[in-house]
Fold these 4 entries.
Entry 1:
Amino acid sequence: MAQSRMGLGPWEAFHQGISRHTGLEIGTASILVGIPVLLGWIPLGQKPGIGTVLNILCIGVVTNAALRVLPLPEMLPMRLLWMVAGILTIGVGSGMYLSAQLGAGPRDGLMMGIYHRTGLSVRVSRTVVEVTVLILGGLLGGTIGLGTVGFALGIGPVVQIVLHLLGAPPKNQQPIPASGVIQPDTPLTH
């Protein structure tokens, strides 16, 4: 998506904004942002796993490496193709690793926490997270464009579809009341 020059995904725009203010590479900013994002898990009741640690470390390293070696397509149809391929690749990859249930990455953990805590769909939960981060990324000077909006609105549905196709949609739990206590006799919603 970055090489398409059609706009970064919201998180990458946020990382790029941080990069522009600090001089860090985008992938390095991603690694560093992943750690405090985990604090957002606390009120959502999410628990990290090995997938969480691997996501924090690998995504940023791969981002830095890919930006160094991937070519920059010049023709608009190819740039659009790269943008759509980026959204689909990230959505399919997210659905696949989440279905393994070895721990969500920091950003996906926010989505899953909102999903479990509120009863909203995966699609809506992810869209809420992405639109919020899109605004923050724009305020920090990250590259916003058609790809950013496409990602913010498209990634949630792709992840939800992949989870469903893999037969591993996450079990939706009853929304947790403000008291934090779920009555044991209350049935869970699906």
Note: The radius of gyration is 17 Å.
Entry 2:
Amino acid sequence: MPVAAVFGSARIVEGEAEYAVAYRMGALLAEEGWTVMTGGYAGAMEAASRGAGEAGGHVVGVTVSAWAGRNSANRWVIDERPAPDLVARLGELMSADAAIAVGGGIGTLAEVALAWNLRQKDRRDAGPLILVGAPWARIVPHLASTLIIDDADVEIVRLAADPEAAIAYLPPRPSSLS
């Protein structure tokens, strides 16, 4: 079963628009037969996990065993994979067949930058990097106009207005995460 890593802010809560987007993204991924992998905690991670879980999908949460104040994954995670630190956690998340960001904050920006850079370095093996929502549609062109990012680098990123548009960028049969 292919795996999609979903990134987003831990600071959002149920009832907010960004939570609904992450929930819908998780549900659509599960309906399409994808395993949903998140950082495992609250906010968008919980929403995507919940959406996938309620749609009957498999949910992986990559948590950090050494973080104080974060004891365990959200209740929608079926398969918790504790990483010893943030770097190992990012490595596990980057092993997914697709990377999808739904809004987010500084942590999400770091995850997107890493996923983007890995795809820039080895375009052959990396799955899609999909950024969902209007903020990303403003950020990517801004970065391209202010940093050293060429057109080929921008083409790596797929901008989607909503989860339904994001699903269209997924390959029909990507390889599975072991």
Note: The first helix runs from residue 17 to 31.
Entry 3:
Amino acid sequence: MSLTIRPIEPADRAEWEPLWRGYLRFYRARLEPEVTESTWKRLTTPGEGPYGLVAVKDGQLIGFTHYHFHRSTWLIEDTCYLQDLYVSPDIRGSGAGRALIMAVVEAAKRHGTERVYWLTQEYNADARALYDTLAKRTSFIVYRR
């Protein structure tokens, strides 16, 4: 069947949350329930960021992406940070990840920016193989405190 990419909706919570947990597990992250609740509220509040898109196949959510727009000291227009991207493991390779990224690129264009960037772990070889076909890898190293 066909793949649909659309904005996340409040009614998606029951299907989004298991995907969110899978995403956090993949990145070896633990969040307090209050963080997930706050994230969900932000994703589903019109005009609030971050923004969310979901991939739907055969009536089921199979993936999501969350993204932000923010100002930059290097650009006049905003830039777009694709913060989270996840596709259910049993559906990977179907084009859903690519479609979600391209939907964010289109959202960025509608917002008035051409720059979209994202991060991933070095060990995420499958995703990196896709990303290498869509964008240029930079030499930046991330520090976090």
Note: The beta strands are 3-7, 51-57, 60-70, 79-87, 116-117.
Entry 4:
Amino acid sequence: MSEQAESTHLVTVRSCKYDGRVHRVWEASVERVEGSLIVLEGSFAEEVRHPLLGQILRGTRSTEYYWTDRWYSVFRFREPTGELRNYYCNVNAPARFDSRVLTFIDLDIDLLVAPDFSVRILDEDEFEMNAVRYAYPQEFRARAGRAVEDLLALVAGRAFPFDVSV
């Protein structure tokens, strides 16, 4: 794929567990590819009830930021009206992208960022449990910890993709 995506096209996103098992699959449109950054745009076709996020209305938009060299991804959710709903950040191994399928290994830790930029770190216990279950290499454990630190610094500094101008 070229450095800059020329046209929007649908891709399949595959969130996998460390053992390769597919955890979730959805489709999104490629908005741009710039160096290691891949930006996708998706929309909820149906209403979803999520234990932490509550009711997600049909038509909620998701701008998804993935990197092929960073250990996290960021989802910016907007209500059907366009209003910022929240950010949801996954700690994951760097994405792999072949222009048709984007795949990443979800390492369980998530950050929920409210519109006021307050942050809740989620699922650290699930990370510890799966680190034992799947025998995460020490490098994965260390990179996951650094990813949380990096995300917290980006949120605190309102740096991309948490800058309100985007």
Note: The helical segments are 124-133, 138-156.
